[in-house]
Amino acid sequence: MANYIIRRLLLVPVLLIGVTLIIFGMLQLLGPVERSALYVTDFPKNEKQIEGVIKKYGLDDPFFVQYWRWLTGVKDPLTGEREGGILFGDFGYSRTASQDVIDIIKTRFPNTLDLALWTIFPMISVGIWLGVKAAVNQNKFIDQIARVYSIVGTSLPVFVFGLLLLMLLYANNQWFLPGKMSDWVSRLIYSGEFKQYTHLLSVDALLNLRFDIFWDAMRHMIMPIITLSYINWATFLRVTRSSMLETLRMDYVTTARSKGLEERDVINKHARPNAMLPVVTMMGSSIVGLLGGVVITETVFNYPGIGKAAADAASQLDAVTILGLAIFTGLILIISNLVVDVLYAFIDPRVRLS
Amino acid sequence: MTEKTTNPTGDNRLLEEAQSDRKIGWFEQVLGPDNYRIVTGLFKTPASIIGFVLIIIFILVAIFAPVIAPPVGNDPMKIPRDGFSGEPQPPGSPWNSNVPEIPFWYKPLTGNDKWVHLLGTAQGQYDIFYGIVWGARTAFETGIVVVIATVLIGVILGSVAAYYGGWIDNLIMRITDIFMTLPYIMMALIFSSILTPILGRSLLPPIIAMITFGWMGYARVIRSDILSIKERDFVLAAKASGVKNGRILTKYILPNAIFPTLVLATLAIGDVVLSFAALSFLGIGTEIGYADWGQVLSFARNWITSLDRYWYIVVYPGLTLTLFVMGWNLVGDVMRDVLDPRMRGKI
Question: Quick check: A137 and A143 in contact, CB under 8 A?
């Protein structure tokens, strides 16, 4: 076990260096003027300023010199302050949003987390339940329905589904709303009367016992939650079904049946726990996917998370901002993948032995 | 006890195959028994047949686009506009300015001799019908280019890694891991928005971005297929008789390992088109007015408060994209079963 964890930990620096190299490589495709946003807020205006900036931050130095400077930042010779340096959490300045990229992350990431928090449970539980139901009733009506759903579910694009939801649940009747919160909630937060303990709006609302705000948060999140669940249900259903079918054919299941156990116990106690192993891997990767920012869903519903921030910056071709967001997302993904892999090794002994 | 030859119970497929004197057609001779099984397996279920029909319909639409919707102006890929007014027009509304030629099928089918906006117009009076018909070409173009390029990269890297092994294998597979860590849509979005100022607005930036971040799956699949073939007798025989490494890889191993990868790759066209549509939905890629499903759908983003009135700017292009992807998914679903060795003999 320790052996496995050490091997897995050794992969982390490799991934970190690789991911930063890829992102820095993409940065180098930009001109020095755009890249200067890594260190300074103002756009250099004339020839002279441009030259000055290039010289000061060495924007035409060799690749690896710049890479190192990008990681650790530059000391200003006059004031002695560090400028840039992603290792210190300085991801540059977003000229389209007029704020530091790290500030964008600070305001947007809690929203992405909030959404992920409420999506995880319906996404996983319903998906698995459908898969088990389909496998137990193989080739019967419910199984056929499930199979049709898993095909349609994977074929209907997220943004089409999202637009259809908006059409049915918002456009005419305003049952549920796009965005993050209603105006009166944002005014309340701005006024400071509403204490923000966690910066996750729904959780804060519960902690403040403001159920009207909680309902408002939910009204804004229901549509993205449905969308994210629906795409993941199809995959959960498929994986659970095939794994469950395989398990039901195992000898020990037959043994359990021939001992005279009730079918319900055979399925719930003997077959299902063992069929869950591949599903657990899926769970890991879909939760990680939710944290990594769900670009399309957030954009369709105008939900101000990390993914929406990336899409906005991309459509305005603000590369420094998106690359800053990408570094952050990359870090989140590397860490959460590590956690998932280690947890998985605890659950399934075959992983750590291989 | 009388001597009698009976087959043992159980899976007798191999035995029956060895005993039978069934005719082997030229098609099977060309493909070999395994690949033949894959191809015939694809045509045996209703799901995959529906899938093939959908795909063929889209191929026909793409080929006969000029007949179905005669081009207006110099660039047929630009969706013709009927004026510049912002508000979308419902299906069946008359075409006022910039009227295209009326195709031969129109009169007998509709009994109308004036061309109308069959599926309505999006904002800016872009005709949705044109966007859908000519968009089929964009879909196949991007799908085929991206799939060919990603397969090439994946096969080269994967086969080099598998064949040479050791540190080369380690290096290539770690690079693959690193690329796999990054979220696909986000990276494709980022890279194409970096490439757009350099290359200009066209299909090129998203295509290059999707290739850069899309090859890893093929590298892994071909690597594991080659690893299992590498140790077969005929490869060892070739090695023993002094054939060069490169030649062994290209002439002996790849032809025997590549077929499943190629089939999977073909079926990935649906996914590629889906991602491409997602990128153009987010506003990356072609210039506004280019016939491309994702872009037609992105027009709907400005009308979310009144989508109940302008349903046609979502429903028609959305349905088109869904049916396209579904065609490939239906075939792909059957494919997965056929390629799965545990399903051998069941299809």
Answer: yes
